[in-house]
Amino acid sequence: EKLNVTSHDAMAFVIITLQTFAGMWINGFIVSVLCVAWVKKNIFNSIEKILLFLGCCRFVDLCITWVYSFMSVIYPHCFYVHPIPQIFSAILGFFNSSNVWVSACLCVFYCIKIANFQHNFFIYLKIKIDRMVPWMLFASVLLALVMAVFSYDITDRAVFKNLNSTAAKIFGTLSVRTDEHIFLMFLISAFALTTAFMVVVFSTLLLLFSLWRHKRRMQANSMRNLNMDAHIKAIKTILFFTCIYSINFTGFILLLLYGTKREYLQIFFVSIFQHALSVFHSLILIFSNPKLKKALLRTL
């Protein structure tokens, strides 16, 4: 059929393309720097494993999102073909969930590695945290696979229509036969996002409490030691994470409200804003890591 691309479609695709390639460059930079350092020194610590895994997930996620947007604009009728929409939904659900949970694992790692508590269980975690990192990443992948299965199943039950709408074409807005299906999808996503958000908040509170105890033990005329500096640096990084999670969670609630009212323009702008959050989060990861920050400044 004749291709009909409106100015709204073109504008939306340009915005998504700019965000995608900016995010791909940033996350590709993270992955390349860590891989080069791994090859040179043949040493790969736990924090670098988490950052590498997160960077790879976001890079692939941005690639799939751009391909999805490109096909939605250039050839939207392919989404009537089974199982193309189901596969896209499952892949995007997998990588979105991976990003959320691996970011939460990063906050947990910072908390356990830096905070000082004398409880036996916490001491055990501090000793075993480096061995636990691969299992944490494996658990994140399993949870992401569960989300992918749910996304595939719910999309398979859905009926795609209103494809002439810009927001519907770019972000795959669904119109389903029954409200139970879309409600189940949002309920599962909300549970996963809320759980990860609570993990980040709990890690932040533990670090703040540890910093408060450490500061109280220090004498009034003593200088800050390395442990204090590590606490403050980690808290700043995790606070940025918490702000991003809070904004992302608010955006999810807005998507839920606008989705029930079929307000596609609001859905479009909220989704654009949520996609930009991952780019800012990756920048925070670069500037909070001395190796990545030094490599970025040297590259620029």
Automatic annotation (TrEMBL):
GO terms for molecular function: bitter taste receptor activity; G protein-coupled receptor activity. One of its GO terms (cellular component) is membrane. Keywords: G-protein coupled receptor, Membrane, Receptor, Sensory transduction, Taste, Transducer, Transmembrane, Transmembrane helix. It comes from the Eukaryota. InterPro entries: TAS2R. It is found in: Membrane. Its main location: membrane. The chain crosses the membrane at residues 12-39, 51-75, 87-112, 133-152, 182-212, 233-258, 264-288. Pfam families: TAS2R (PF05296). It is a multi-pass membrane protein. Belongs to the G-protein coupled receptor T2R family. PANTHER family: TASTE RECEPTOR TYPE 2 (PTHR11394), TASTE RECEPTOR TYPE 2 MEMBER 40 (PTHR11394:SF47). This is Taste receptor type 2. The lineage of its organism: Eukaryota, Metazoa, Chordata, Craniata, Vertebrata.
